[in-house]
Amino acid sequence: MNKQLSQTNSKFYARALTCTLLLCFLASVLLAQTRKSSSIPPLDSSFDDSHFHLTNYIQEGVDIHKYLDIMGSRVGRSTLFGIPLQQMWSFQNSGTYAPTYYLQSDAPLYYYSFTDAYIAATYNSLSATDKQRFDPMITGFNPADMYAKAHIKRVLLTFPGVFSGIGEFSIHKEFVSAKVAGEVASLTNPALDSIMDFAGEVGLVVLIHNDMDMPFAKAGTEPVYLSQMKALLKRHPNTTIIWAHIGLGRIVHPVQQSASEAPSERNQSYMQIVEGMLTDPALKHVYFDISWDEVAKYLTYTPQSLQNSITILNRYPDRFLFGTDVVAPTSPQMYYAVYNKYDALWKGLKPETSEMVRKGNYERIFNAARQKVRAWEKQQGL
Ligand SMILES: [Zn+2]
Fold this sequence. Notes:
The protein is α/β, with parallel strands linked by helices. Helices cover about 45% and strands about 10% of the residues. It has 14 helices and twelve strands. The protein has an eight-stranded parallel sheet with strand order 1-3-6-7-8-9-10-11, sandwiched between helices. The chain has a two-stranded parallel sheet with strand order 2-12. It is globular and about 80 Å long. The structure holds zinc ion (ZN). Zinc ion binds near residues 51, 53 and 168.
């Protein structure tokens, strides 16, 4: 009797265990599918990416779902744009060698406006929940063209409910500006003013790349494009503007006061220029992104330059945004390298500064933009 009872019991327990395991398995499959079909922005993410290129200089890139996988729960939200310039493959120049980067050919770059349609279509292919994680940007216009504003307006009217900003577009950029086919862009061109005005009117965030100085500039001289840039920014007080890379380039290094300066001192003089802008009430609509591994290198070059960077970010925590500036990442390693390069900075900043630079400022700026642009679209009857 006892034996029979224990046999019945063990059969019962075995069945119960099988059922529980099956339920667990089904639940995990369902959960994985739910996560895949609608990735909810994670609450405990490390950062939002204010500067991200989905495609490269030949308009090829990473599939948006692959990017979502890479973002996982470490990245909450991200901007989304391609690159407005296309590297021409000139058979005359490189023969059968197909260049994928602007340094790989002497052939010109040209504006590839289809990038905006591509970004919009990619965004529109996402689920409503996934869309919440992206802020697409319009880039496919020539900033030297008086018709650029018309292009931006056309993109908004053709793809309502999509875009939050314009950029990254470039005015002065080492190696690139001189390769662009046609008239060269300039900070003093009225075409650029009409773009900036229109962005302000609609509520689009502007992400502009403009080297503060020329490559290999002489020590002790004022950065060549600084005063023109400040004047441009001041002409558009109603536009929210992010100056990409705080005006630095690969070889457009932080300003040097004399040739004998140590790199840390160089960083200090440069930070004085940036601080001068941050304290100017006429530039309170201007923000800086610290994207690009080259910028991470300059800002953390020596213990002194790291300290200078920490000081200025802690002093103006609401004016800086983190971004990766990674182009079409093929792996998490490639994508997270820039964020990891700033490890010492994240550790050195006050917790509230770090939170604002990594996430808070992005969310405040882009939430406001989304709201304004959607309202403008509604006014247009869309
Ligand atoms: Zn960029």
